[in-house]
Description:
homodimer, alpha+beta, SH3 type barrels, PX Domain, Substrate Binding Domain Of Dnak, Chain:A, Domain 2, 3 domains, three-stranded mixed beta sheet, 22 helices, 53% helix, elongated, SH3 domain (chains A, B), transport (chains A, B), membrane (chains A, B), SH3_domain (chains A, B), phosphatidylinositol binding (chains A, B)
Amino acid sequence: MALKAQVLYDFTAEPGNNELTVKEGETITVTNKSIGGGWIEAQNSRGEVGLVPEDYIEFKNEFPAFPAASTAPPSNAGNAAYPDLSVFDAFAPVSTPAQNQASNGNDPWSAWNADPSGGTNNNWASNPEGTQTGKSAPDPWGNVSQGHPQAYQGPAAEDDEWDDEWDEMKSSAGYAESESGEAGGIQRGGMHASSMKISLNKFPGFSKSGPELYLLCKQIAKGKDKLSIYVGEVGPVWSYPETQIDCIVADPKKGSKMYGLKSYIEYQITPNTTNRPVNHRYKHFDWLYERLLDKFGSAIPIPSLPDKQVTGRFEEEFIKMRMERLQGWMSRMCRHPVISGSDVFQLFLTYKDEKDWKTGKRKAEKDETVGVMIFTTIEPEAADLDPLEVEQKCEQFSKFTKAMDDSVKEILTVGNEHWKRCTGPLPKEYQRIGKALQNLSTVFTSSGYQGESTLTDALTAAGKTYEEIAQLVAEQPKKDLHFLMETNNEYKGLLGCFPDTIGVHKAAIDKVKEGDKLVAANKITTQDKVAMSKRLSTMSYTLQAEMNHFHSNRIYDYNRVMQQYLEEQVKFYETIAAKLRQAHGQFTTM
Amino acid sequence: MALKAQVLYDFTAEPGNNELTVKEGETITVTNKSIGGGWIEAQNSRGEVGLVPEDYIEFKNEFPAFPAASTAPPSNAGNAAYPDLSVFDAFAPVSTPAQNQASNGNDPWSAWNADPSGGTNNNWASNPEGTQTGKSAPDPWGNVSQGHPQAYQGPAAEDDEWDDEWDEMKSSAGYAESESGEAGGIQRGGMHASSMKISLNKFPGFSKSGPELYLLCKQIAKGKDKLSIYVGEVGPVWSYPETQIDCIVADPKKGSKMYGLKSYIEYQITPNTTNRPVNHRYKHFDWLYERLLDKFGSAIPIPSLPDKQVTGRFEEEFIKMRMERLQGWMSRMCRHPVISGSDVFQLFLTYKDEKDWKTGKRKAEKDETVGVMIFTTIEPEAADLDPLEVEQKCEQFSKFTKAMDDSVKEILTVGNEHWKRCTGPLPKEYQRIGKALQNLSTVFTSSGYQGESTLTDALTAAGKTYEEIAQLVAEQPKKDLHFLMETNNEYKGLLGCFPDTIGVHKAAIDKVKEGDKLVAANKITTQDKVAMSKRLSTMSYTLQAEMNHFHSNRIYDYNRVMQQYLEEQVKFYETIAAKLRQAHGQFTTM
């Protein structure tokens, strides 16, 4: 049966790019799902065929991403005989075909698609209480009062189970987001810059005048492990650990609960420090992200988790891709001296058992050195900075990150088009060339003329060679362009976080500028003013250290990815040349 | 000033091929004339840009192809002060801009464009008298009676001049065709199979029952150089000369006459036999073609002259292309043992002086062994053939040539599309990739971070490399695809001639089948019947010899062109690989 899809947003084809213009609500027939690069080939009602962005459409009658889920008979949907099942259906990561039909595309999927800000992190934004205080852990007993069936498992429930109820207490929308991400993430065009989800009034007592919380706080909290900043060749730098932490994300395993009604993927993370693997679900990564964002977001851009950027809707491909991106995210976190050294990150990588994990979670969620207060833990070795220099530096970083963001997006756009051409029209053309040569060979064979075979064999071989080239061309993007795109996608995400981080600094600069006025108005004392610019200078050292960290990583990453890309490109062209040389050898004018 | 063009025929763009749909009469702006392959890039009134076949449009305000022609002041058009000039204007190969404007696109060009059957040879079809008898040479004095000004030059006129009047006596349409071909031939899509212009009632006394002229002729004309057919390994073959004739067509020179009002291109043809160059204008090639067609057309397919297949409307390119194709045509004629040995062909290659040429022309035009009568000169060494075998052979050849014709057209279509992609979207894309990398490099340079330069230099180099690749891609088709297309174009033309030749044989076969009936009806004697099938068998030997000649040439030609094509393709991919390897070397993760 032809796979139908519904168009979610208008999409206008770019001329000459083999794209198909579609209108919201239109139904199209998917003719090729495995184009890759976030594109599918589809045919509209007028029979026109072309490429459409995967994230602009919604598949109809799609089978659930989780076979496990499909074990629930379709007839269960809203079937009174199974009251509790239907309760879970409302939260089920993927609904069964029957439900899809019933909901006429109003299932959680489309809701998720339609949400442009998208991504797991939103459920936090949507219930700030979750982060207002570090105490978002609900009282399990609360579940009973809400009569949630699962509550009857009581305290015996293992931590994950218990997490689930807690999640399920959230708005189903928020839930749908977080789980649908895990169930079959949709490529979000990869073109929207993701950004950190911090907002100036998201932190404890953090208001528009947020930075003053730190700038004016009476005493720097004690007994914290301090974060030192040294002045190196390139300027202020973080103090890097002796041994670079890294970890391997691997071996995704499917787990299921509630009699197979809910399933999830568990990844195995093995740090090079302990070499002892720990298991985490996507939602645990998400929890880690939130902690890091709260704690370091004002000083260090924390890239969003891979989620909306995931390509491919089919489990195998999806899990592989997500794992690859979680690996990339974890490696980046490991490479950061401050993050990799933090308690919460260490907990994530090295917790001994469920109890250890649970306690650590509690502790992390109670941590009050979050938001701008992180600066209280920073100790620059160098002298104070001139506020003017501080401002200039801040401006420079702001300009650079913006410019790089634009440039990275340009590469992604061009790469995306190249991907389409290499997987669409180009191989088709080589195939047709190959076929034409083989057809000619067939005709020649019918000539009945002597000594025909040398030519016809050679022609057939040449034709087959061009069919092989078609294959090579179509497969190449996955071998090289893929990594170039992934790296730039990662940087797009990272760069999207800088405005928030830099915003905190700009707010602090403005506050310090008001210093004299505030003194005159007796709002602050002269000591306060001195303290403020001293602390602003600490913030600037932090930003500079962070930028230098960013630059050194960037230089390494782009050298590596370009090497990788060009190496594969060379192999690609050499392979083709070799194949053609072989084909050439078969012809003879002797 | 933007070059405007008028659309002559509706053209519907093929989706995904970067083509532009245009309607007859529409005016478009040409944005790129040098696409090649018979295509131009144009923009329509709605601002859409795409490729349009060159032969579907007519350029406006185009400069005359011949600078010489433009020496006639535009104001001359229809200027009463220059009556004779305006007379010639009507016949002028190219009209001046002023004339184009005056005629609002109704100049000879568009008339010529609009003629689908096209080509120089048509003017013969349009006045059969020209060929009814071999005596198409007009009486020069006739010109006087028609009061043609040039006639007053009388007999003193050099032969070429005199030729012109003779030409000009034809319908101006016919004239426009034959000269416009010489002036700036238009690519006729290269996709219509050209065919010989013989028709069954084109030869002396040749009617629907044409072959009987030979089948029943009372006596085989004497004193002719006989054409022998031997039976070789592959079957009946022509007797080939000891030394293969060949010639070089080179050194096109512009000549002009009538005070520079009319100019022409003269080519130098040097046969390897005499090594003495002779000069010929296109019209002389055309004359030769007509002679060969009349004399050998029933037995040997005579490919049309390169004319309608010429690509490119600009003099330099056009002359180069026509010379290349005249060379191809001449080489093919030289390779044919019967044609290369014929008096008329020898005359063309080796005439000593104008007088010699003139006499030879007269003689050739008086030759009466034309049409089916050519078979009277053929002597097969072998025994007579069973009529059934004759018919089967004929069927087989008919099938094969039809099948090859289809296959060759498929290659031309695919090649044409490939040409477009390689000269259009593909290089644009590589260019954009190159630019994107260089832009990123520029941004990085602005980071102010130490040790940036290694990466930025490498990125810039990589970017430039992709711009070079864009260039290579765009130029490649001229280096390899061009020859593949030319060879197949030539074969398309040749194959288009077989139906006529084979038709003559089929008519003969039918006639012989009627043998008994005719005897019974006392229309022919029993000896006649015997003679008929004897002569049919001679015709069959001829056809088989011709097919074997065709096969051996075909095998050689396709081996050669495929070798050439693949060799260039290998070079192409190796060059790219080498460039990329160099770019790769500049990145470092040390």
